[in-house]
Design goal:
Layout (H helix, E strand, L loop, with lengths): L11 H10 L4 H14 L4 E3 H9 L8 H11 L6 E3 H11 L4 H12 L6 E2 L1 H15 L11 H12 L7 E2 H10 L1 H7 L8
Antiparallel strand pairs: 1-2, 3-4
Helix pairs in contact: 3-4, 4-6, 4-7, 6-9, 7-8, 9-10
The protein binds calcium ion (CA) (2 copies).
One calcium ion binds next to β3.
Length: 192
């Protein structure tokens, strides 16, 4: 067959890493990689492209703000670009990774300033973005504003009442409450 596509191959160690750390098979990972390299020949995905790809998971609503937060949570060095490995981990986790991985990731996304705890204003910001993205998908009987919703969530999750959520409080709180889990990880928009 020869190598008619001259694009770089995915390094073996990256492939192994992704097989071990995502739900995707070798063949699927190679498929994703081919598509990725077609769109991003230099091997780096910029924010606007990420938004294009990511929004296909959310056909309704406007995912832009939420996407920015998702992007930030994977763009560890804040370079404005993510590589293939970071990209596939993002797809894997946000499209239904195991609950604990997902919550670990979600915590990092909520912790906007990266100080190790979620402050109320951080949660208000992300919840507003989720509302924005999901449109009607999260319609419940209560029509809370992001601020009201945040207050209720803190009432439930802030075990030691210090006004911030630790990672432990966040993860345990979400594990106990299916609705919160789905809402806070934007799971309602997932692949059901
Ligand atoms: Ca914080
Ligand atoms: Ca606390």
């Amino acid at each position: 067959m020869g190598n008619k596509s001259s694009s770089k191959k995915l390094p073996k160690e990256d492939l192994e890493f992704l097989v071990n750390n995502t739900k995707f098979s070798k063949a699927e990972i190679k498929d994703w990689y081919r598509g990725f390299m077609k769109d991003c020949p230099d091997g780096l995905l910029c924010k606007s492209k990420f938004l294009d790809v990511y929004s296909t998971f959310f056909p309704t609503g406007t995912p832009d703000t939420f996407c920015e937060h998702v992007f930030r949570s994977f763009d560890k060095d804040n370079s404005g670009k993510i590589d293939f490995k970071e990209f596939l981990l993002a797809i894997n986790i946000t499209s239904g990774g195991n609950p604990e991985d997902k919550l670990n990731w979600a915590f990092n996304m909520y912790d906007i300033d990266g100080n190790g705890s979620i402050e109320k204003k951080e949660m208000v910001e992300i919840i507003a973005a989720i509302y924005n993205m999901l449109g009607n998908a999260l319609c419940t009987t209560e029509a809370d504003t992001p601020e009201e919703r945040t207050e209720k969530i803190f009432d439930k999750m802030d075990e030691n009442s210090d006004g911030v959520l630790s990672k432990k409080e966040f993860i345990e709180g979400c594990m106990k409450d299916q609705f919160l889990y789905q809402m806070l990880t934007a799971d309602a928009a997932g692949n059901q």
